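Usage

Read records sequentially. Each one opens with the input sequence:
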Amino acid sequence: MTVEWQGVFPAATTQFTTDGELDLEATAAHLDMLIRAGVHGLVLLGTVGENCSLSAEEKRSVMTAAVKTARGRVPVIAGVAETTTGLACRYAEAAEALGADGLMVLPAMVYKADPRETMAHFRAVARACSLPVMCYNNPVVYGVDITPEMFAELADEPTLVAIKESSDDPRRLTDIVNACGDRYILFGGVDDLVMESAMLGAVGTVAGLVNAFPEETLRLWKLASEGRFADALELYRWFTPVLHLDCHPKLVQYIKLAQAMCGHGTEDCRAPRLPLVGEERSRIVALIQQAIDTRPALAA
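and closes with the structure output:
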């Protein structure tokens, strides 16, 4: 299906059993819950989806299950996070063959490429298949920054259509527009900057805590995207302590714990990620429980 790049696209979790095996049935059930809640698209196998913890065969199994589960109700976007450009190109080809509607492409993992190498990587993956591409810029986590000037240079690649801007600096959205005009569709990629991103021109968000709080995420995005910022502010202030969990090295464990506490899956991750313990677990559980206990009523 044609991707309408707007709205709430969950960075969906991948579900595992308690012994670390891939649980496709639970993953499909979680994706179906998100679709029924009203999300506008699905992003599989991003950071929150534990892409780099899965084998190539497992990634293909997840994509097959996601496409089957979506049944054309929403677009399915495949995260592309490989250690080499060649592997990324082959996975992009495979994702297209499996029925993905688009790609979210990350820089090559492990090696911190310079700007020339980074742009060559994105060009190669964009040319590997015909799917539209969202470029994922997250220098905070991956150490590779795709600057507005680099996006301007990449503008001649027709399938590079959207940007997930996760530099943790909302000024970047304005800098991209000033450098590139309306060439790219802008998405926010940091949960606790969602309102700021909407104010600065983002038409969508790739969200993490939506896995646990889908109704609240969708309501907040609706208010912010409609410019109803005064109405959104109370909800945003309630949500922000939990949204901060998206900006931590253990965001996967935190988000999965939140979704488990909200009844939307399990907290099981694949090692080296381990269940939270001790003071850290108590602190994060208390924060999430506070949000659950004080959930605001969602007016129309």
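Summary fields computed downstream for this record:
- Residues 7-293 form a domain with the TIM Barrel fold (CATH 3.20.20.70).
- The chain has a mean pLDDT of 97.
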